[in-house]
Specification:
The protein is α+β, with helices and mostly antiparallel strands. The chain has one domain: Beta Barrel (OB fold (Dihydrolipoamide Acetyltransferase, E2P)), CATH 2.40.50. It has a 5-stranded mixed β-barrel. The longest helix has 22 residues. It is globular.
Length: about 120
């Protein structure tokens, strides 16, 4: 590497480092939320035609911005596995832990706050 290239590399490295430091100092609110404790599935609805067949459910505990419950979009790649986990937990009376995005509310409920599920797990 010639000296001129080294100077340009150093300057661009410092600029990139300064940008990263500036961004790290900004206040960013996390969109993925979860209830403080696991809960049971209280209701579930499988829509046959809305948005291709979305699945909506509520739990005994809720998270900020997800006061009504959770939804799994029929187009989500893990749709079948997530729905199976919810139904298994509901049928068995098991507890679930849900992580959802409260910036992506379900469009099928104009008044409710159903958050988009990112992950769901069954606990004992």
């Amino acid at each position: 590497m010639n000296p001129k290239s080294l100077v340009i590399f150093k300057k661009s490295s410092y600029a990139a480092f300064a940008c990263i430091c500036a961004l790290a100092g900004t206040d960013v609110t996390a969109a993925v939320v979860t209830p403080a404790a696991s809960g049971t599935v209280t209701t579930s609805y499988a829509y046959t035609s809305y948005n291709g067949g979305d699945f909506v459910f509520s739990t005994s505990t809720n998270a900020p911005g997800c006061t009504t419950g959770w939804y799994i979009s029929s187009t989500d790649s893990g749709y079948k596995a997530a729905v199976a986990a919810v139904l298994t937990a509901q049928a068995g009376g098991n507890y679930v832990v849900v992580y959802g995005d409260n910036s992506q509310l379900w469009s099928g409920s104009p008044s409710g706050q159903y958050c988009h599920v990112q992950a769901v797990g069954i606990t004992s």
